[in-house]
């Protein structure tokens, strides 16, 4: 399975569209929030997304759990778990859910780390000067910077 992973678009719809078009062969697109898009823009992307701290006008859940390659993935923005101050709260929460992967955003810093057998992925920010995102393919996650 091929999955596009994005976060923190902050209204840069054209950049997110470009990233999605570069990966037309994806099976799924997940986003960890702070989209700042209109509902129409969001719907056009066919993305599984969660609400970030700036997504006041989008009707999105604060978290989603999806199954990819028979593994459970938790998708959150991270503001509720205070990820800007460390991953402790997010790790404690993820451990209660028996997931294999956690996708989060909020910090605008790409990161991938494995803790207690769970892989945590922050794809960075689409809104950064050099847009950042991640790609999951055949069990491997790659952090990507630039278009």
Tell me what you see in this structure.
The protein has 147 residues and is α/β, with parallel strands linked by helices. The protein has a single domain (2-145), classed as 4-Layer Sandwich (Purple Acid Phosphatase, chain A, domain 2). The protein is built from 3 helices and 10 strands; from the N terminus they run E-H-E-H-E-E-E-H-E-E-E-E-E. The strands form 2 sheets. A 5-stranded mixed beta sheet has the order 3-2-1-9-10, covered by helices on one side. The chain has a 5-stranded mixed beta sheet with strand order 4-5-6-8-7, covered by helices on one side. The mean pLDDT is 95.
Blueprint of the fold:
Blueprint (H helix, E strand, L loop, with lengths): L1 E5 L6 H10 L5 E4 L7 H7 L2 E2 L13 E6 L2 E6 L11 H10 L3 E3 L7 E5 L2 E5 L9 E6 L2 E6 L2
Parallel strand pairs: 1-2, 2-3, 5-6, 6-8
Antiparallel strand pairs: 1-9, 4-5, 7-8, 9-10
How do you describe this structure in short?
With 147 residues, the chain is α/β, with parallel strands linked by helices. Helices cover 18% and strands 33% of the residues.
Spell out the helices and strands N to C.
Answer: EHEHEEEHEEEEE
Strand order of the largest sheet: 3-2-1-9-10
Major sheet description: 5 strands, mixed
Total beta-strand segments: 10
Can you tag this structure with a few keywords?
147 residues, five-stranded mixed sheet, 3 helices, 18% helix
